[in-house]
């Protein structure tokens, strides 16, 4: 609100909904212009003084160069991408079509994003929310796994379970790949150590004495060391997994400009 000694004016800057809320009329000719602009993936911010619209800004966020590659790779892994956007339908539709996202939501405020994620998780769906802004915080907190981009706000990073340190979106593929290898390694180590101990402990306790097989203490000690080394060696394979995961997500073949139509 602008105030001086003699004049008081209400200045409103924001989306079309904010203009309507403050009874600021947007001419039909401007609506057509804005619709055409939004169809090209831009966002429009209106400016009004009192009850009159005086103009608008056009803001265009470039699609990340590795976004298309990342989305297609997720779909090949049977991970369904869903886009939650606060932009108009035309802008959201343009971006979704460029990236190959079939399910998308538009004109969503932060609370509505949270409600969508809550609805998905109620049916047992595992939901990972990737965001970088303040308006993504409650959606990140509601998701099964909250992921923040390194270039995002500090508040989003504090809320997220995982923070991608670089600004490269395809590092999300590294995260998924390493997570799966880590869980596979934990499961494998647990199974191997359980089988080994179930077999070795009774033998070390003398269960085979009746057939003349008596395990000496030093042999049992070596067997225990072998058990620990086998688990450690299995875990060391994660180093190879890191190299593999980085290789499959390094230098994506498509970018936001050269992606196939």
TrEMBL record:
Pfam families: Hydrolase (PF00702)
Spans through the membrane: 190-212, 218-240
InterPro entries noted in UniProt: ATPase_P-typ_cyto_dom_N, HAD-like_sf, HAD_sf, P_typ_ATPase
Domain of life: Eukaryota
Keyword Transmembrane on entry: yes
Keywords: Membrane, Translocase, Transmembrane, Transmembrane helix
One of the protein's GO biological processes: copper ion homeostasis
GO molecular function terms noted in the UniProt entry: ATP binding; ATP hydrolysis activity; copper ion binding; P-type divalent copper transporter activity
A cellular-component GO term for this protein: membrane
Cellular compartments annotated: Membrane
Presence of the UniProt keyword Transport in the record: no
Name of the molecule in the record: Putative copper-transporting ATPase HMA5 (Trinotate prediction)
Biological classification of the source: Eukaryota, Metazoa, Cnidaria, Myxozoa, Myxosporea
